[in-house]
């Protein structure tokens, strides 16, 4: 009997490795040239929800941000205010948004917060949109659709981050504010499913963001990074470094975890005049990177 050659043995070993790990977990990486201060930081378009998608892109560029996270329902432009931007957009509208992004050298990286349906065909439309836009992730709170989400994540290689809003005294059934609950939802799932860490809403729930990030270590998909003026439900946004959220500690923790997702500035204060303050947030992260 002819003995197998070393080459044949190596090929068999490689095939066996692939068979043994059928679901290789990839990531749609954001190119490094979109980093600022060592992070992919830009704006959640909701910061500019008094404006259109096109204006949100322009204002993100004006702040110095390099990436943007869209949300469903924003009006497209001043020229087409009747057109709403979401995952049901026509191919023509999608191309217009892509062209606008390219003109301002901004990369779309995320979309949400959006409901993900349990029904596979309805969910597939959302993931097809994300793939068409070249997004890394979708942000949701649809824990009831976790089985469908995991299937779509594997099929499309688009990540999903579960977002947290503040604790709701009038609704004890709402549990997304608790990082331990989010971890219980995602810990046994595909590694491309995790948390969209909204640090401001943790502060509004009386939690320390660094502690929450450590609970979710290795599962941080993206972040809505906020610095609030005080702990508790009534806190409002301030430029990074001026509030109680411990932004340096947050950035240190994300860096130590090898975080590769986007940081979205979702600035929910001074809605019509927030560009200078958002630019200060970008500048803080730029300075953080320079100091390191």
What can be said about this structure in brief?
The chain has 292 residues and is an alpha/beta fold.
Q: What would your notes on this structure say?
A:
The chain is α/β, with parallel strands linked by helices and 292 residues long. The chain has a single domain, classed as Divalent-metal-dependent TIM barrel enzymes (TIM Barrel), CATH 3.20.20.150. The chain has ten helices and twelve strands. It has helices at 6-20, 53-63, 91-103, 120-133, 146-156, 179-186, 199-204, 209-215, 247-256, 275-291; strands spanning 40-44, 67-70, 74-75, 84-85, 107-111, 137-140, 159-163, 193-198, 220-224, 227-228, 237-238, 262-265. The longest helix has 17 residues, at 275-291.
Question: What is the SS-derived class?
Answer: alpha/beta
Distance between the first and last residues' Cα: 62 Å
Number of helices: 10
Q: Helicity, in percent?
A: 25-40%
Domain tally? 1
What is the H/E order? Answer: HEHEEEHEHEHEHEHHEEEHEH
Please provide the count of β strands.
Answer: 12
Low-confidence spans: 6-24
Shape descriptor reads globular
Roughly what is the average pLDDT, rounded to an integer? 93
Radius of gyration: 20 Å
Provide the β-strand percentage band: 15-25%
Characterize the biggest β-sheet: 8 strands, parallel, barrel
CATH superfamily: Divalent-metal-dependent TIM barrel enzymes
The order of strands across the largest sheet is: 1-2-5-6-7-8-9-12
CATH class: Alpha Beta
Annotated CATH architecture? Alpha-Beta Barrel
CATH topology: TIM Barrel
């Amino acid at each position: 009997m002819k003995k197998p050659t070393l080459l044949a043995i190596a090929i068999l070993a490689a095939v066996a490795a692939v068979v043994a790990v059928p679901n290789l977990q990839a990531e749609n990486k954001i190119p490094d040239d979109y980093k600022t201060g060592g992070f992919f930081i830009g704006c959640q378009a909701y910061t500019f929800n008094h404006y259109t998608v096109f204006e949100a892109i322009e204002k993100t560029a004006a702040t110095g941000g390099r990436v943007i996270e869209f949300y469903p329902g924003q009006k497209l432009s001043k020229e087409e205010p009747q057109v709403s931007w979401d995952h049901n957009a026509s191919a023509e509208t999608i191309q217009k948004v892509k062209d606008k992004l390219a003109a301002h050298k901004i990369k779309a990286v995320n979309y949400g917060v959006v409901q993900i349906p349990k029904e596979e065909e309805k969910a597939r439309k959302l993931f097809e949109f994300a793939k068409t836009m070249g997004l890394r992730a979708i942000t949701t709170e649809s824990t009831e659709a976790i089985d469908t989400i995991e299937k779509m994540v594997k099929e499309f290689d688009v990540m999903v981050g579960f977002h947290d809003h503040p604790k709701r005294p009038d609704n004890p059934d709402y549990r997304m504010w608790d990082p331990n609950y989010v971890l219980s939802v995602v810990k046994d799932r595909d590694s491309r499913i995790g948390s969209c860490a909204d640090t401001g809403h943790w502060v509004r729930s009386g939690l320390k963001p660094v502690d929450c990030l450590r609970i979710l270590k290795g599962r941080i998909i993206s972040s809505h990074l906020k610095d609030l003026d005080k702990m508790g439900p009534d806190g409002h946004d301030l430029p990074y470094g001026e509030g109680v959220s411990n932004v340096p500690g947050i950035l240190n923790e994300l860096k130590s975890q090898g975080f590769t997702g986007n940081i979205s500035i979702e600035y929910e204060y001074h809605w019509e005049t927030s560009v200078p303050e958002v630019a200060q947030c970008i500048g803080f992260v730029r300075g953080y990177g320079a100091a390191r």
